[in-house]
Amino acid sequence: MQKQTSILYCALALTSLASVSHAQSTVEECVMQAYSNGDDRLTLAEIRQTCSGTTTNVEEAEVAKLRITPDSAGLVGAISSRIVKERQTEFEPYVITPHKMNYILPAVTTNAINKEAYSTFEGYEDNLEDIEAKFQLSIKVPLNYDSIFIEGDGLYFGFTIQAWWQIYAENISKPFRETNYQPELFYLAPLDWHPFGGNTGFVVGIEHQSNGRAQNLSRSWNRVYTNFLFEKDNFALSFKPWTRLSEDEKEFEFDPNGDDNPDIDDFLGRHELGMVYKWNDLEFSFGSRYSFSTSKGSAEFGLTFPLWGKLRGYATAFNGYGESLIDYNYSQTRFGLGIALNNVL
Fold first, then answer.
1. What tens digit of pLDDT does each residue of 109-135 get?
2. Secondary structure string (H, E, C) spanning the chain
3. pLDDT at 250
4. What is the pTM (predicted TM-score) of this model?
5. 86/95: higher pLDDT
6. pLDDT tens across 176-218, in order?
7. Which of 4, 99, 179, 185 could hold 274 in an S-S bridge, CB 3.0 to 4.6 Å?
8. What is the mean pLDDT of residues 262-270?
9. Rounded distance, CA 199 to CA 112, Å?
10. pLDDT range class, residue 75, cuts 50, 70, 90
11. From the candidates 72, 147, 194, 208, which is the catalytic residue?
12. Cβ neighbours of 108 (radius 10 Å)
């Protein structure tokens, strides 16, 4: 879900080869695994060191990159496991790495569709249905091979598209009611701090979000954010405060250069909290936003479960403001059911 963007990265520095070699019982198997699945940047000397029985030193090096103390090294959880798998393929030219969740919900219901936003289009708003389809596509691209400032850090470009599709509308041409585009650039790094025996990290980023519409349907904002990350075993938490970058006020109603939604912080708040927990084959997620000045915000619950092959079932419930940009100042309760291509963790 959208609230859980960067919590996946605090264990970025683990490499795939160290993880693979631990599971091998012979030097030959280790070398073959390095040949098949190892990072292209590994040197022959590094492969020899890893597969010659000196894996203890390699383990300690990787633990140091993660800022994980030796006593807690055995407690690396689900976040780290996902990152290890991503590191094996994220620089391959024909591999797309997920950023947030990728899913399609063929059925999303609401207690009341937002018709007021479309009131200037006569007849259009009356034909909007309270049930529609929704999908999200989200990818990220690593921009650096080696560490920049801190061992194990990284710079990423991410891009996410969310779309709400009125596929069940009979009297209009089944349009996409709303589409949100969200490019972002962010820097992440681990922290050498282990409260409650867990692991921590942080993210600093800048992002733009807009719906690509014009005049009175246009919605957009830019913000700079930080994100504190925490993981322990199968539990992960993120706390993401942000500051919106100011825009000029509109000089007239349909001024294309003015701020389309100057009060968006009053409804979406200035921070969000995300939590994820894995239990067996189930993954539970929670995200919330809140504005202390207006007492407005939102809460979203999610559940993924095994379905078939790589596909996961995905059920979600949302209540509050800002499920989409066009609905940023409109409160509703929504339930959705569909298929996810990847989990959060």
1. 999 999 999 988 777 888 999 999 999
2. CCCCCCHHHCCCCCCHHHHHHHCCCCHHHHHHHHHHHCCCCCCHHHHHHHHCCCHHHHHHHHHHHHCCCHHHHHHCCHHHHHHHHHHHHCCCCCCCEECCCCEEEEEEEECCCCCHHHCCCCCCHHHCCCEEEEEEEEEEEECCCCCCCCCCCEEEEEEEEEEEECCCCCCCCCCEEEEEEEEEEEEEEEECCCHHHCEEEEEEEEEEEECCCCHHHCCEEEEEEEEEEEEECCEEEEEEEEEECCCCCCCCCCCCCCCCCCCHHHHHCCEEEEEEEEECCEEEEEEEEEECCCCEEEEEEEEEEEEECCEEEEEEEEEEECCCCCCCCCEEEEEEEEEECCCCC
3. 81
4. 0.80
5. 95
6. 999 999 999 999 888 888 888 888 889 999 999 999 998 789 9
7. 4
8. 96
9. 42
10. low
11. 208
12. 21
Query: How many angstroms separate the CA atoms of 161 and 210, rounded?
Result: 10
Please report the domains of the chain, with CATH numbers, ordered by start residue: 16-89 (no CATH), 98-340 (2.40.230.10)
What is the tens place of the pLDDT at every residue in 17-52?
333 334 444 567 667 766 666 656 566 655 665 565
Spot the catalytic one: 72, 147, 210, 331.
210
CA-CA distance, 168 to 125, in Å (whole number)?
A: 14
Q: What mean pLDDT is predicted for residues 141-151?
A: 89
Catalytic site includes residue 271: no
What average pLDDT does the chain have? 83
Let me know if 99 is a catalytic residue: no
